[in-house]
Amino acid sequence: MFNEFPERQIACLINGTSEKVILSRETKATTVMGKEYVYNGLFAPKSIIALGDIVEVDASYMVLTMRQIVERDKYCSLLKSNAAIDVQRYGQEFDVNDNPVGAPDFITVQEGVVSFVQYVTADLRQQDQGLLPTTKYVVIFQTSVDVMRPQELPSPDRLIIDGSPFQVDVVDGMKYPNLLNIQVSEDIR
Q: What pLDDT score was predicted for residue 3?
C-alpha cells in the first residue's frame, strides 16, 4: 500500500536517517488532544522505524504504536511533540582536580529534549487513575533521555518546561514502549 501512493510520500528523518512516510491525522479522535497531536504514519516494509523513535518532518513525532499491515507496511500511531524541555539534576560541579566549585545547585544534564507535555485536567485525572494528586503535567519523551527515578537520587530531577521548574515525581517506562511517561509537580525547592 505504501508504494501505491508515491505522491503522498514525504521525506522524513528517523533518528537522523532519511526515509519516506505517508502522514495523516487520526480520523477517529474525539478530543482536542487527539485531533491536534495524534497522527498516523505509514512506512515502507524495509523502514528502520521502531517503537519510541522520533520522526522529523515539519515537526517532531514520537512513535507510540506500530503494527505491520497485510502488505507488510509499517503502520504507526505518532504523537506530535509540543515542547523542548531541559533536564536538570541537583549536584556539585568539580574542576579538573576534582575540587568542588561553588555550592551544590541544579546542573543541566540535557537540553532541548523533544517531548510531549500535557496539562493535567480533572478530565485527565478521571481517565488516568494513576496520577498523583500533585501532578501538574504529564511529559512523554524517549528512554534515551537522562532522567532518573526520584527514589534513585537524594533530590529528584527537575524539568524546565516553558521556563518554569518542575520536580520529577514519577518515571514510568512501562506505559509506552521505548518512551518514558513522566509525572511532574511544581518545584518549590
A: 73
* Cell 540535557 -> residue: 110
The helix (run of H) or strand (run of E) holding residue 65 is strand 60-68
> What single string gives the DSSP state of each residue in 100-129?
EEEEEEEEEEEEEEEEEEEE--HHHHHH-T
User: DSSP letter at 144?
Assistant: T
β-bridge partners, 122: none
Q: Which domains does the chain have, with CATH numbers?
A: 2-80 (2.40.10), 83-186 (2.40.10.270)
Question: For 96, phi and psi rounded to 5 degrees?
Answer: -65, -20
Identify whether the C-beta of residue 156 lies closer than 8 Å to the C-beta of residue 150: yes
pTM: 0.87
The tens digit of pLDDT for each residue in 5-35 reads 888 899 999 988 999 999 988 777 677 677 7
- Start-to-end Cα distance in the chain: 54
Q: Who's near 41: CB < 8 A, 6+ residues apart?
A: 21, 22, 23, 49, 55, 61, 63, 75, 76, 77, 78
What integer best gives the mean pLDDT of the chain?
91
Q: What are the cell numbers at 14? A: 528517523
Looking at 90-99, 113-122, 159-168, which range is the least confident one? 90-99
